[in-house]
Design brief:
Blueprint (H helix, E strand, L loop, with lengths): L2 H14 L23 E6 L15 E7 L4 H5 L1 H10 L5 E7 L3 H10 L5 E5 L4 H5 L7 E5 L5 E5 L6 H8 L7 E5 L9 E6 L6
Parallel strand pairs: 2-3, 3-4
Antiparallel strand pairs: 1-4, 2-5, 5-6, 7-8
């Protein structure tokens, strides 16, 4: 797995692709917080919109990624993501990408780049992204079977053992991320050790 190229792309995305940035907030969800409700506009791939709610997903671990077809790290992580989806297809794990791309562009993209996850359009003004207090693309929020945040990570850092731990009711053990303040011109994401994944 190419972790450091992933991280470099994530750190530099704002400067290279002005329309796209990785999340850059100090207010990202913390482990143990109740996940905010979905505010989705439409399901592109997956179940009916009414079936994508915390009530219908109760008892499942949810891997939620904020995603865009112009986000280079997001696209590079598709093979890894598909492998994860296939690995957990017989287990209570749901993978959901939330995008603000135009629907027609998404459908063209999916014909060339099959994705095994559910894919949804975010609500007006990126309502779900804002509810999760994230600004940008390329971050994953893992939610446990009780609807609580288990951790926030980059797609390339998420491994099967992390989800196995969450399925077992244990802390995910994801690498902790530090985010630059939202006002910073250059978002910075640094590994600072292993997160306990426990509520504080």
């Amino acid at each position: 797995m190419k972790i450091w190229p992933w991280l470099a792309w994530s750190v530099c995305a704002c400067g290279l692709l002005p329309a796209v940035s990785v999340a850059q907030t100090t207010n990202a969800p913390k482990a143990g917080e109740i996940a905010p409700p979905f505010q989705l506009a439409k399901i592109i791939e997956g179940p009916a919109l009414k079936d994508v709610s915390w009530q219908s997903l109760k008892g499942k671990v949810v891997v939620l990624e904020f995603w865009n077809i112009q986000c280079v790290p997001c696209i590079e992580a598709i093979p890894h993501l598909n492998e994860m989806v296939d690995h957990f297809k017989e287990k209570p794990v749901a993978f959901l990408l939330v995008s603000d791309d135009p629907e027609d562009r998404l459908r063209v993209f999916l014909k060339q780049h099959p994705i095994h996850t559910w894919l949804a359009l975010d609500g007006p003004d990126n309502a779900t992204e804002r509810a999760f207090r994230l600004h940008g693309y390329g971050l994953v929020v893992v939610i446990d079977a009780e609807g609580k945040v288990a951790g926030v990570t980059l797609p390339a850092f998420l491994k099967t053992e992390h989800l196995d731990r969450v399925l077992a009711g244990q802390p995910a053990g994801l690498p902790a991320l530090n985010f630059a303040p939202a006002a910073s011109a250059a978002p910075v994401v640094n590994l600072t050790g292993i997160s306990s994944g426990e509520s504080k």
